[in-house]
């Protein structure tokens, strides 16, 4: 377990040094397109839910208040 922790700390340190000093490697997909994918996904999801909530006519029944009434109490027959 000690070797694993030491290796993990070493990898973390290397990554921090690489980010701090700038990497010469080409940018990967996430650093190139990550924000665009996140924003477009958010817009798409919001648009779909906006359509579902406003145009489909689904009755959601979020609260049963004033929609349900208790049954009248039955008096036990003796």
Automatic annotation (TrEMBL):
Superkingdom field: Eukaryota
Membrane association type: Single-pass membrane protein
Pathway: Energy metabolism; oxidative phosphorylation
Compartments reported by the entry: Mitochondrion inner membrane
Name of this protein: Cytochrome c oxidase subunit 7B, mitochondrial
Broad class of where this protein is predominantly found: mitochondrion
Family designation: Belongs to the cytochrome c oxidase VIIb family.
Residues annotated as transmembrane: 33-53
Keywords: Membrane, Mitochondrion, Mitochondrion inner membrane, Transit peptide, Transmembrane, Transmembrane helix
Pfam families registered for this protein in UniProt: COX7B
